[in-house]
């Protein structure tokens, strides 16, 4: 390999390294943590678990805070469930429209 090719290869390697460093600054890496939570009451410990899973969006209390029965502790978001809910809601809208159309037709037939 001659000097010119060597310099060219070195420039490519340096450019790619700089590009990778710049890209790592802009790329967001999501981390997932699996675990269980325990809430300790004055009387005993309570296990917290989610059957469908999700992402904790907000935490409304801090460790050591006193809370009352029914108080919201955290907000958990499950995007899959939200999408499924929206799909069923849209489907319900179509079915409601069909029911209205059929009811209208039946009412017209009953009037005749």
From TrEMBL:
The keyword Transmembrane helix applies. Keywords: Membrane, Transmembrane, Transmembrane helix. InterPro entries: MFP (IPR050739). The keyword Membrane applies. The chain crosses the membrane at residues 9-27. Signal peptide: none annotated. This is Biotin/lipoyl-binding protein. It comes from Salmonella enteritidis. The lineage of its organism: Bacteria, Pseudomonadati, Pseudomonadota, Gammaproteobacteria, Enterobacterales.
